[in-house]
Amino acid sequence: MADQLITQNFQLGAGSVRPNGFKAYAIDTSVNPSPSYNRRDFYKASLVTGHFVLQVAGRSLELNGTYLFFANPRIPYSTLLLSVHITGYACLFTEDFLQANNLFDSMQQDALFASGGIPAYRLTEGQAAYCTDIFHKMQEEQSTGYRFKNDLIRSYLQLLLHEAFRGQHNASFESPCYC
Fold it and tell me: In this structure, what CATH number is given to the domain that contains residue 144?
């Protein structure tokens, strides 16, 4: 069945954003095969392992492996599973959450968030381990009572963004194939 196209639209998301404008969660299609998250008014960072087609702004990218993917509410996207089991992590965040430390301005100036940019980067095993650790830290931190947890979570998010920005100029990132 892994070679068959699964016709369900796989949304790479879950639930709603917390009152502070941020939510991190795990992705595992063996547990939740068809997430029902359909809203597109949030930014999203995802670390995803599997085989699927990402349709972004009228283009299709076939992704097979582990990718760091970023989405924003200004550029439409959807995904179609090509394998049964997709795993990883994701976080949703609002523009207000980003603007608290001017992260929003720096993001908007980068090609990663432009309509013609490549929003997904294949990761090496080491890069995937590094990004997985960051997602774990974000998941843990979101439920603490730490007074500055939002600042810390934004710092973790910046680390993910810098990994992607660095990847735009680093040969160890393999760009996806446009179908």
Answer: 2.60.120
Query: Contact at 8 Å (CB) between 10 and 52?
Result: yes
With a cut of 70, say whether residue 113 has pLDDT above it.
no
Cα–Cα distance, 13 to 26 (Å, whole number): 9
pTM for this structure? Answer: 0.78
Strand partners for 55: 60, 78
Nearest to 113 by CA among 164, 47, 62: 164
Query: How would DSSP label each residue in 107-130?
Result: HHTSGGGSTTS--EEE--HHHHHH
Overall number of domains in the chain: 1
Per-residue pLDDT of 54-69, as tens digits, reads 888 788 889 999 999 8
Domain coverage including residue 75 = 22-178
Which pLDDT tens digit goes with each residue over 84-100? 899 999 999 888 887 76
Compute how many other C-beta atoms are within 10 angstroms of the C-beta atom of residue 104. 18
The CA distance from 176 to 179, in Å, is 9
Which residue has better confidence, 158 or 117? 158
Return the DSSP state at 20. T
Alpha carbons 176 and 65: distance in angstroms, whole number: 10
Q: Is there a domain that residue 82 lies in?
A: yes
Which residue's entry shows tokens 């068809």? 34
